[in-house]
Each structure stands twice: as C-alpha cells, then as structure tokens.
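Supplementary Note 3. Input sequence used for the single-chain structure prediction.
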Amino acid sequence: MEPRTTYKRSFKKRFVWLFKSIRNYGHYSKTELAVAVLFIAILVVWGIFVLRWFVLIIIATMRHFGLV
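The predicted structure, written as discrete structure tokens, is reproduced below.
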C-alpha cells in the first residue's frame, strides 16, 4: 500500500506542474521564483482593479446621461 499523500505534498506537486515551463528553461532559485510569482500576482490584482474602475466609469457616465 502506497503512503498517503499529504495536502502539503499535493500542493507542491501542483505548484511544480504549474511552473514546469519556468523550471525547464533555467535554473531559478526559490527566491527568484517567489519574486516572479509575486510580480505576476500583483499584475493580476492591478488588472482586476483597472477593469473594475473602467466598468464603474462607464456605468456612472451612462447613468449621468440617463441611459441606464
């Protein structure tokens, strides 16, 4: 019977699979990988905020002119 996979091991396997392309093209240290992931996360959050702001401006403009 094979040993039970813990949540931590399962998470690590998914993380390695997700960033397999990064791992194959260079030797990144853990710090560089963490910085890359943090940078991508910040860009995604910033994109969400910008998108919400544009939607808010469009809806506010439409309400101002009585279209909604």
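Residues 30-64 form the longest helix (35 residues). Residues 27-68 form one domain.
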